[in-house]
């Protein structure tokens, strides 16, 4: 079963615009992670936010976490064509497995 | 530092055959996890090995098995292949097991069953 669910499933924007993706999860967590996957390739770790953190930045990425709503968002500012990829949130379930959501497919048009 | 290496990258097999996929983790990493990715089911957790012991297992039939060697390299085996086993199989390594751990993924093995 999926622990995290991303929204929207697909997002298409123009270069330079900001992209926001949301993730909701079901159970309590110690941390939440975001990954990127370029078409048919391996996943790349982007950022990890702990349950006692509300916001975290890494370059053009900004992640927020609201544990009361069991949700997180990933904001990519000033998007580039190279940001075109699928983005996944992931959390550890109670069994200690890292479980991924279905992902958001982001398309950035030049 | 070399990344996670998965071999082979592409594989075509016939229904009923068996297949073995290999994963070499980042040097020093002792945890290896396997995932199956399909368009319909997304990323599904198969199993995790740490120090040669299976630590976690997903909801897959017994046809899916794995092992880890003393050098942390891992293999997964799928016997009696079915068409539905066609997928991208991803391996991830971590320096330790448990939470607060980021996973480093290989490029995957694309398995096609015909």
How would you summarize this macromolecular structure in one to three sentences?
The complex is a heterodimer of chains A (110) and B (114). Chain A is mainly beta and 110 residues long.
Helix fraction of chain B by DSSP (H/I, runs of at least 4): under 10%
Distance between the termini of chain B: 37 Å
- How many strands appear in the DSSP assignment of chain A? 11
Instruction: Estimate the strand proportion of chain B.
Output: over 45%
Our Rg estimate of chain A from Cα atoms comes to: 13 Å
Class from helix and strand fractions of chain A: mainly beta
What can you tell me about this protein's structure?
Chain A is mostly beta strands. Chain A is built from no helices and 11 strands. Chain A starts with a strand and ends with a strand. The model of chain A has no long low-confidence stretch (mean pLDDT 92). Chain B is an all-beta fold and 114 residues long. Chain B is 0% helix and 53% strand. Chain B has no helices and 11 strands. The model of chain B has no long low-confidence stretch (mean pLDDT 94). At the A-B interface, strand 4, strand 5 and strand 10 of A face strand 5, strand 9 and strand 10 of B.
Structural descriptors:
A: 110 residues; mainly beta; 5-stranded antiparallel sheet; 11 strands; globular; B: 114 residues; 7-stranded mixed sheet; 4-stranded antiparallel sheet; 0% helix; 53% strand
Per-chain topology:
The complex is a heterodimer of chains A (110) and B (114).
Chain A: E1 4-7, E2 10-14, E3 19-25, E4 31-37, E5 43-50, E6 55-58, E7 61-66, E8 71-76, E9 85-92, E10 98-100, E11 104-109
Parallel strand pairs in A: 2-11
Antiparallel strand pairs in A: 1-3, 3-8, 4-5, 4-9, 6-7, 7-8, 9-10, 9-11
Chain B: E1 5-7, E2 10-13, E3 19-24, E4 31-38, E5 42-50, E6 53-57, E7 64-68, E8 74-78, E9 87-94, E10 104-105, E11 109-113
Parallel strand pairs in B: 2-11
Antiparallel strand pairs in B: 1-3, 3-8, 4-5, 4-9, 5-6, 7-8, 9-10, 9-11
């Amino acid at each position: 079963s999926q622990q995290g669910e991303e929204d929207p499933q697909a997002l298409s924007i123009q270069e330079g615009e900001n992209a926001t993706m949301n993730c909701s999860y079901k159970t309590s967590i110690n941390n939440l992670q975001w990954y990127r996957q370029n078409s048919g390739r391996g996943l790349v770790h982007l950022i990890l936010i702990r349950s006692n953190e509300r916001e975290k930045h890494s370059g053009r990425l900004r992640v927020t976490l609201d544990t009361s709503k069991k949700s997180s968002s990933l904001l990519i500012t000033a998007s580039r064509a190279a940001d075109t990829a699928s983005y996944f949130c992931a959390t550890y379930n109670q069994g200690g497995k890292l479980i991924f959501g279905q992902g958001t497919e982001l398309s950035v048009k030049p | 530092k070399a990344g996670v290496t998965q071999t082979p990258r592409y594989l075509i097999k016939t229904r009923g055959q068996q297949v073995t996929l290999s994963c070499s983790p980042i040097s020093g990493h002792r945890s290896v996890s396997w995932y199956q990715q399909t368009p319909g089911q997304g990323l599904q957790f198969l199993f995790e090995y740490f120090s040669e012991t299976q630590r976690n297992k997903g909801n897959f039939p017994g046809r899916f098995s794995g092992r880890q060697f003393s050098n942390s390299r891992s293999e997964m085996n799928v016997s009696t292949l079915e068409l539905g086993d066609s997928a991208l199989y991803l391996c991830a390594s971590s320096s330790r097991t448990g939470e607060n751990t980021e996973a480093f993924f290989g490029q995957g093995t694309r398995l096609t069953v015909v």
